[in-house]
Automatic annotation (TrEMBL):
This is Phosphoribosyl-AMP cyclohydrolase. Keywords: Amino-acid biosynthesis, Cytoplasm, Histidine biosynthesis, Hydrolase, Magnesium, Metal-binding, Zinc. Its EC number is 3.5.4.19. The keyword Transferase does not apply. PANTHER family: HISTIDINE BIOSYNTHESIS BIFUNCTIONAL PROTEIN, HISTIDINE BIOSYNTHESIS BIFUNCTIONAL PROTEIN HIS7.
Length: 124
């Protein structure tokens, strides 16, 4: 059956969200079995928040949901790649398109992902 092996890593598996059209990696989060089931049921990404210790519907507060187009699972059944459509343009809680918004080039750090919204306005 096509499902992650949640027992291998203490009930959580890494889930990489990748833009289905561009291939851009937008974020890394974790899923437990409940998040997996909700994602399959709704067609939108759900994760397990390790910091808040609760189920998290991506974009539930901001409206920047992730519509799942397809899901890939690795050879060990313990890591997922969600090919998604990022609604609203921002995957990161900092308001940027991608959580990977800093880039190291020639020893210098620069920002490489645009700001899409002001988090102070969205997460009051």
């Amino acid at each position: 059956m096509f499902a992650p092996d949640f027992d291998k890593q203490g009930g959580l598996v890494p889930a990489i969200a990748q833009d289905a059209d561009t291939g851009e990696v937008l974020m890394l989060a974790y899923m437990n079995e409940e998040a997996w089931k909700r994602t399959l049921e709704t067609g939108e990404a759900h994760y397990w928040s390790r910091s808040r210790q609760c189920l998290w519907h991506k974009g539930g507060t901001s409206g920047h949901v992730q519509k799942v187009r397809s899901i890939r699972i690795d050879c060990d059944d313990d890591t997922l790649v969600l090919m998604i459509e990022q609604v609203g343009g921002a995957a990161c809680h900092t308001g940027r398109r991608s959580c990977f918004f800093r880039e190291l080039v020639n020893g210098e750090v620069s920002e490489c992902s645009p700001m899409v919204f002001d988090p102070k306005e969205v997460y009051r």
